[in-house]
């Protein structure tokens, strides 16, 4: 097996092993989806769905799915900062592998972790009897991996600028939470004032959420009310952002690590 | 004896720092040698070792490890070295054996498998052999790292760092925080490794008795070398009446104030 590939698999497997032994993280993976879908989604469905002309609970469900895949992977990459604080990162950075290998392994590992964590969201969809087209949803779930990759690359860029766990805990909510609203996770954003429109198109989560929604609602009557861009366009933007974030983030990370 | 570490006019100035932490340092370490780098806190020991192990860039100078340039051939350099860091670098979320297995994959010694039972027989034999030398049992290997004592963790780190049979082993204050018995056991093991494998040892330590058996002692202060030679030479040059390296060291440091 190729050396770099062997290292990528080992790094990814470590992240999955950590998740399976972290019961609190698994429990907490139910919390935010319950708040967003169970409380916020149901409230919006009861109060504004009729004026919107589509099921906003289902809209929120798909949005939260994409958001979880993106955010969970991003926060997993930022955990490299914690590794650095606990000095385990030394073992990674003195190994005879490239920095791209380390980050690719982390992105792959955290993407797998995110993919496992969405089981809680699917379970919530069942118990809340959300009118999901399950066949279509399972068809597009592999595409959710693309949302993970974008989240991971975004996490690399953010992490490369953080000095420690404390700054990660302060900065991460600030860069993630506004994106929930700018990306339209649970609020329609087909019409926005100019400033919010620009901010929304800068937020990478927008493309991840719209990509999954575009695939889910493709061919359905509410497509034009919900989806911003075609799935192909979103995929194109996601690809560019992925390469940009990963290359820039890796460069900044290596510079920061070595050029102290 | 060919030199495996060559340092020539090494300078490191940290960002926003007016003075260099390592200031025009030059030395060489022969193959199989035991080299100790001593100095007070803030002297530049950890900075020097960080540069030699490719985790920190230098400001200027030339550094070669096993004939390889650390800037242009850093990946090849990392294949030749093993490192015991000042702070423990084990993953507390994994078991002892999983930490070793992870290292084996990073160094491409064996293909990674998710379970120990799936690993190649050669891997299992190597792990059993190495861990038996340091007194780790099969039960210890399956324990989470956080359940191991400080001494056991250090030994595990050494076992891990020797899996890929490095030419040079860098030890940055390896016995810091260990009790005297653990320190003795660790050094007995390192001495055995050095004899059997011919591994070059590069040590930084505050326990000067650990450096008594060195081939060469280099004393650094405020980023500059103030003494370089065998322990006997250092004792003779700086404090003829003194019989321990520690007392010679203290004399050197005080004289250079």
Automatic annotation (TrEMBL), chain A:
<feature type="transmembrane region" description="Helical">
    <location>
        <begin position="134"/>
        <end position="159"/>
    </location>
</feature>
<comment type="similarity">
    <text>Belongs to the ABC-2 integral membrane protein family.</text>
</comment>
<keyword id="KW-0813">Transport</keyword>
<feature type="transmembrane region" description="Helical">
    <location>
        <begin position="52"/>
        <end position="70"/>
    </location>
</feature>
<feature type="transmembrane region" description="Helical">
    <location>
        <begin position="231"/>
        <end position="254"/>
    </location>
</feature>
<feature type="domain" description="ABC transmembrane type-2">
    <location>
        <begin position="24"/>
        <end position="256"/>
    </location>
</feature>
<feature type="transmembrane region" description="Helical">
    <location>
        <begin position="195"/>
        <end position="219"/>
    </location>
</feature>
<dbReference type="InterPro" id="IPR047817">
    <property type="entry name" value="ABC2_TM_bact-type"/>
</dbReference>
<dbReference type="InterPro" id="IPR000412">
    <property type="entry name" value="ABC_2_transport"/>
</dbReference>
<dbReference type="GO" id="GO:0043190">
    <property type="term" value="C:ATP-binding cassette (ABC) transporter complex"/>
</dbReference>
<protein>
    <recommendedName>
        <fullName>Transport permease protein</fullName>
    </recommendedName>
</protein>
<keyword id="KW-1133">Transmembrane helix</keyword>
<dbReference type="GO" id="GO:0140359">
    <property type="term" value="F:ABC-type transporter activity"/>
</dbReference>
<keyword id="KW-0812">Transmembrane</keyword>
<feature type="transmembrane region" description="Helical">
    <location>
        <begin position="171"/>
        <end position="189"/>
    </location>
</feature>
<dbReference type="InterPro" id="IPR013525">
    <property type="entry name" value="ABC2_TM"/>
</dbReference>
<feature type="transmembrane region" description="Helical">
    <location>
        <begin position="26"/>
        <end position="46"/>
    </location>
</feature>
<keyword id="KW-0472">Membrane</keyword>
<feature type="transmembrane region" description="Helical">
    <location>
        <begin position="107"/>
        <end position="128"/>
    </location>
</feature>
<keyword id="KW-1003">Cell membrane</keyword>
<dbReference type="InterPro" id="IPR051784">
    <property type="entry name" value="Nod_factor_ABC_transporter"/>
</dbReference>
<dbReference type="Pfam" id="PF01061">
    <property type="entry name" value="ABC2_membrane"/>
</dbReference>
């Amino acid at each position: 097996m190729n050396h770099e590939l062997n290292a990528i698999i080992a790094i990814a497997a470590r992240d999955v092993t950590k998740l399976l032994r972290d019961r609190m993280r698994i429990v907490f993976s139910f919390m935010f989806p319950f708040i967003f879908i169970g409380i916020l989604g149901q409230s919006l469905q009861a109060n504004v769905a009729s004026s919107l002309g589509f099921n906003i609970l289902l809209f929120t469900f798909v949005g939260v799915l994409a958001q979880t895949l993106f955010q969970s992977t991003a926060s997993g990459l930022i955990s490299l900062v914690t590794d650095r604080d606990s000095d385990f990162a030394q073992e990674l950075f003195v190994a005879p592998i490239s920095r791209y290998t380390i980050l690719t392994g982390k992105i792959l590992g955290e993407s797998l972790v995110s993919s496992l964590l969405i089981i809680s969201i699917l379970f919530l969809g069942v118990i809340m009897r959300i009118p999901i087209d399950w066949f279509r949803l399972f068809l597009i779930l592999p595409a959710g991996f693309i949302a993970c990759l974008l989240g991971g690359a975004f996490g690399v860029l953010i992490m490369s600028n953080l000095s420690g766990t404390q700054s990660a805990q302060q900065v991460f909510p600030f860069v993630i939470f506004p994106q929930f609203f700018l990306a339209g996770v649970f609020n329609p954003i087909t019409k926005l004032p100019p400033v919010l429109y620009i901010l929304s198109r800068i937020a990478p989560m927008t493309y991840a959420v719209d990509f999954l929604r575009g695939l889910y609602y493709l061919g359905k009557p509410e497509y034009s009310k919900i989806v911003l861009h075609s799935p192909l366009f979103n995929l194109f933007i996601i690809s560019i952002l992925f390469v940009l974030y990963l290359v820039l983030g890796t460069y900044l990370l290596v510079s920061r690590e070595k050029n102290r | 004896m060919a030199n495996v570490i060559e340092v020539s006019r090494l300078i490191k100035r940290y960002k926003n720092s007016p003075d260099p932490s390592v200031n025009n340092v030059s030395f060489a370490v022969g193959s199989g040698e035991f080299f100790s780098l001593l100095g007070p806190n803030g002297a530049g020991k950890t900075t020097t070792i960080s540069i030699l192990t490719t985790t920190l860039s230098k400001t200027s100078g030339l550094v070669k490890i096993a004939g390889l340039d650390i800037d242009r051939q850093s990946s090849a350099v990392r294949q030749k070295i093993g490192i015991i860091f000042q702070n423990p670098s084990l993953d507390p979320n994994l078991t002892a054996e999983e930490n070793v297995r992870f290292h084996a994959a990073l160094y491409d010694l064996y293909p990674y498998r998710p379970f120990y039972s799936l690993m190649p027989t050669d891997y299992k034999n190597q792990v059993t052999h190495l861990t038996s030398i340091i007194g780790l049992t099969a039960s210890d290997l399956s324990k989470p790292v956080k359940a191991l004592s400080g001494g056991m963790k250090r030994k595990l780190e050494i076992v891990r760092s020797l899996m890929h049979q490095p030419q040079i082993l860098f030890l940055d204050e390896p016995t810091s925080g260990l009790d005297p018995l653990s320190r003795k056991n660790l050094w007995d093991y390192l001495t055995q490794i050095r004899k059997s494998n011919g591994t070059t040892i590069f040590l930084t330590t505050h326990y000067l008795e650990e450096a008594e058996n060195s081939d060469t002692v280099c004393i650094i202060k405020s980023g500059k070398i103030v003494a370089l030679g065998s322990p006997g030479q250092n004792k003779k040059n700086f404090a003829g009446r003194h019989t321990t390296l520690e007392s010679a060291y203290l004399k050197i440091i005080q004289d250079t104030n």
